[in-house]
Amino acid sequence: MLKIRLRRMGSNKKPVYRVVVSDSRKTPTSAVIEEVGFYSPRNDPAEVRLDRERVAYWVERGAQLSETVRSLLKRAS
Known about the structure:
It contains 2 helices and 5 strands; from the N terminus they run E-E-E-E-H-E-H.
């Protein structure tokens, strides 16, 4: 099953996340199918960039949203 979830990037204590589409059976740091967004919680206010068209495309094809990505989508709208 495909999952749309966060992938942690950045250095120690300075996280930056990418919103990615990947296989749910693999770790979030393994190969991804597509990157569909970006989330930086350290900025004030937090920066959220999502390609809504691509997220909708993957959801139509059966990808599941993680709880965190679902909340980011609500926050970004």
